[in-house]
Design brief:
Region (Disordered): 372-405
Protein name: KLLA0D08349p
Distance between the termini: 110 Å
Strand order of the largest sheet: 3-2-1-4-5-6-7-8
Family: Belongs to the short-chain dehydrogenases/reductases (SDR) family.
Number of strands: 8
Strand content: 5-15%
Order of helices and strands: HHEHEHEHEHHEHEHHHEEHH
Radius of gyration: 27 Å
Transmembrane segments: 284-304
Helix content: 40-55%
CATH topology of the largest domain: Rossmann fold
Biased composition (Basic residues): 392-405
Length: 405
């Protein structure tokens, strides 16, 4: 059949074959669009590593984009997961049941932990650490994030009074990983423990506020600045966390462990058609979402951005690649992974160890200060509530005397 068509085209001309001329006319354009789509999709993870018997804590897993794709892939590989979510409700429970049905893995569990609330983060970490013997932990996969509309002119804060993006993207994640250090160090020296933290290419536009890392006293200019700065500061703090884990393990270990079995990795999954992108493009408006995003820009976004599944490939690569195992590492530095390959950091702050250490220490101090302030407020509210309850339950002397009469 192909030879007959080719012969007719050669001897009888192109016009003798129906629709061949339009096909030849449009083929270069379609090939060009296909090449762009293939390039923008990025590479796929090729490691076929099983995760049977491994236990991971996952944040941001319930998002209907990259997070869900990562959870599905890990569950199909046999991993047990503790998925942290802001609130356990009917929707989240239905999502969890759906993940179990799709993968045949019943070892997917939900735990409530709002990363924008430092008190909830401490409660979860304390509950996790308050266990003897120490619980198994093979890694923490951080994919959670908050990106507010860039046109937002009013500062939106968390329950602790921290700007919501800085609280969710930086303070909460930092607090969780810092509190979980005893669990990392308690793992056997032959266990490959991976701390994988996602970032965004917009961190290149961020600022590192070393003296005020939670931006409590900085003036609010726009949401974009705080989003990019939260991602930049988290990446910088992770570099110092890696050094702390190795140093503390070497100083306190009695069995010769090096601490290098616990690796911290910063992952940039690429530009995706995610809820954050929809919020930025639509500026939080439903009308703009329907017209601008879904109708006008979607063909271009489909062509130039990744789907959640394609973005998840870099995360899965970071979980499964043997390059991060202690036996294969040539140095102790944090690896930066983009498009399923290890790349170099671009900004000079990533090579300033003194800045990273100061940022880490100042963040701990500010978080402790905020926690003490909020604890005092909770105590006052509790005392007031107890006082009101006693006042309401106090017997009325007039009613008591009437009954006695």
């Amino acid at each position: 059949m192909p030879l007959n068509i080719l012969g007719a085209a050669v001897f009888d001309g192109v016009d003798s074959i129906p629709y061949l001329r339009p096909v030849l006319t449009w083929s270069p354009y379609l090939a060009f669009i296909g090449a762009i789509k293939y390039w923008s999709g990025g590479p796929s993870n090729t490691w076929e590593r099983n995760l049977h018997g491994k236990l991971y804590i996952v944040t941001g897993g319930t998002t209907q984009s990259m997070g869900t794709s990562v959870v599905l892939d890990m569950a199909r590989r046999g991993a047990q997961m503790i998925v942290l979510c802001r609130k356990i409700d009917e929707w989240s429970e239905e999502w969890c049941e759906q993940m179990r049905e799709l993968t045949g893995n019943e070892l997917i569990y939900l735990e409530q932990c709002d990363l924008s609330d430092l008190f909830e983060v401490r409660k979860f970490a304390t509950k996790w650490l308050d266990n003897a013997p120490p619980r198994r932990l093979d890694g923490i996969i951080v994919m959670s994030g908050d990106c507010e509309p860039w046109g937002l002119r009013k500062k939106k804060t968390s329950t602790d009074g921290i700007e919501i993006q800085m609280a969710t993207n930086y303070a909460g994640v930092f607090h969780l990983l810092n509190l979980m250090k005893p669990s990392f160090k308690a793992q056997p020296p032959d266990r490959d423990v991976r701390i994988i933290v996602t970032t965004c290419f917009l961190q290149a536009m961020g600022k590192c506020n070393v003296e005020d890392p939670l931006w409590l006293h900085a003036p609010f200019k726009n949401s974009r600045e705080l989003f990019s700065s939260s991602k930049l500061q988290l990446s910088l703090a992770m570099l110092h966390l890696q050094r702390l884990l190795i140093t503390e393990a070497g100083n306190s270990a009695k069995d010769g462990r090096s601490g290098k079995n616990v690796t911290v990795t910063v992952v940039q999954p690429g530009l995706m058609r995610s809820p954050s992108l929809r919020r930025v493009v639509s500026n939080g408006s439903v009308l703009l979402l329907l017209i601008l995003y879904c109708v006008i820009l979607y063909p271009f976004l489909w062509l130039l951005t990744k789907s959640g599944y394609r973005g998840a490939q870099t995360i899965i690569y970071s979980i499964t690649t043997p390059e991060l195992e202690e036996v294969n590492r040539t140095d102790d530095e944090v690896k930066y992974i983009a498009n399923c390959s290890i790349v170099n950091f671009a900004r000079k702050e990533f090579y300033d160890k003194e800045l990273q250490e100061k940022l880490y220490e100042n963040t701990i101090k500010q978080i402790e200060s905020v926690e003490k302030k909020m604890a005092a407020q909770r105590n006052q509210a509790s005392k007031k509530e107890t006082k009101d309850q006693k006042k309401n339950t106090k017997p009325n002397p007039k009613k008591a005397s009437t009954k006695k009469d």
